Amino acid sequence: MTLKKIASVLHLWLGLAVGIVVVCSFLPAALFVWEKELTDLYYHDYIFVEPNGKPPQSLTKLLEVASKSVPADQALEEVNISGDPKRAYIFSGLEHAKDEGWNAFSEVEYSTIVYVDPYTAKVLGVVDQETDWIWLLRIMHQQLLLQYDIGHMIVGISTLIMIVMVITGLILWWPRNKGALKQRFKMKFNAKWRRVNYDIHNVGGFYTQLFILIFAATGLVWTFEWWTDGIYRLLGDNPEKVFNQVPVLRPNGQIAANPLDRALSDMITKKAEWDKISFFLSEKKFLGVIRYDGDSGWDTWDLHHYDARNGDLYFSVRHEDKTTGAKFRNSNYAIHVGSIYGIFTKIIATFIALFCSSLPVTGFYIWWGRNRKEKKSGSHRKMKTTQSI
Q1: Residue 289 counted as domain residue
Q2: Sign of torsion, CA 332 336 340 341?
Q3: pLDDT tens sequence across 268-301
Q4: Is residue 292 part of a domain?
Q5: How far apart are the two ends of the chain, measured CA to CA in Å?
Q6: Where are the beta strands (DSSP E) in the chain?
Q7: Is 342:359 a contact under the CB 8 Å cutoff?
Q8: Exposure string (b/e) for 8-41, b if CB count within 10 Å is 16 or more?
């Protein structure tokens, strides 16, 4: 078999094998690219507040108010504070079920978001993420609404197969001679539908292949550790030394009042201008993440570790001190969803997701059309042979 024939067989059968997964995963992804915009629109009354000229109330008090709005057995372990004074503070909590079951809904005990006005300490709304259609777009994309270990592996394997299909597709696209080269770059929209469909699949696939590979490569980071380690090595880093090792807390640390407020006060002094501050809360420590605009091309954010007993800072990692691998890993999500350079890359990500979801459809139509043509040709030849006899 020639290389093109081998590529054709692989492209066909691998495409048929993962077609449904690609459609079901990439259609919701095209919408989820606009998660922030959709959330701001759908939960507008929860998110946006009117500053009253006074400073926000203490984070300790706001956390206490938010905690009273959910059942006593639900712990709120994260808070997100926007640099925009017209936005609510967002508290959230998540606990996985002991018996994870087979679908995404059975693996979560609770997943709750609480929106609080920082000036009045009023709870504006409580959202159960398991019923939040915007969040479910992501769950559908990354795990097909299945239990995570099952669903994300199916999507991950399908993504690997997509990389193989990009390579085999390029082999099939490659013209046999210079005369056919011009036809490989243009779509004939004035031709019959079968030819238009072929051009969308073939020519469109050529123009989008680089973007498909980028989104596939960043998506596989969440599925295969060996893939992520390979990227670290390509970037010149030892996978075991990509991230800084956090020192152990002293066992006899002092206790101080309102440690969370002390930690937040310190965080605010770290940058003159910041976009968002997040705190991940536990009994022993607070992990503070401060995001801000940078000119490095990566998502820029610093990490600050605080002692939960007193709010004292005991370890920091600035963006400029991170390894290249760590900067990539911190930016992987933004690259994958297309938010890395704002609305322009979001539009690209949306188009690529929609185009990827169309590939199994246009590819199936090409295969189905060829089969019909071959059957008709075979029947026609058989009729001629019968008539000649």
Answers
A1: yes
A2: positive
A3: 999 989 999 999 999 899 999 999 998 888 999 9
A4: yes
A5: 35
A6: 78-82, 89-96, 108-116, 123-128, 276-281, 285-291, 301-307, 313-317
A7: no
A8: eebbbebbeebbebbebbbbbbbbbbbbeeebee
- Is residue 300 in some structural domain? yes
Instruction: Round to whole Å and give the CA distance between 315 and 83.
Output: 23
Cβ pair 36, 138 in contact under 8 A: no
In a domain, 278, yes or no: yes
DSSP conformation letters of 22-74: HHHHHHHHHHHTTHHHHHHHHTHHHHB----SSPPPPHHHHHHHHHHTS-TT-
Tokens 């051009």, residue located = 199
> CB atoms < 10 A from the CB of 72, how many?
7
**Alpha-carbon span 273 to 80, nearest angstrom:** 16
CATH code for the domain in which residue 297 is found: 3.10.450
In the chain, the amino acid numbered 26 is F
Q: Are 359 and 198 in contact (CB under 8 A)?
A: no
Model confidence pLDDT, tens digit, residues 362-388: 999 999 888 776 666 655 555 555 445
Considering only CA atoms, which of 199, 202, 173 is closest in space to residue 187?
Answer: 199
Domain that holds residue 278: 244-322
Q: Residue 202's closest CA among 355, 21, 3?
A: 355
Sheet arrangement for strand 78-82: 123-128, 108-116, 89-96, 78-82, 276-281, 285-291, 301-307, 313-317
Least confident of 17-26, 171-180, 339-348: 171-180
Residue 206: phi and psi, rounded to 5, are -65, -45
Q: What backbone phi and psi angles, to 5 degrees, belong to 113?
A: -125, 135
How does DSSP classify residue 272? S
Which tokens belong to 283?
Answer: 């009994």
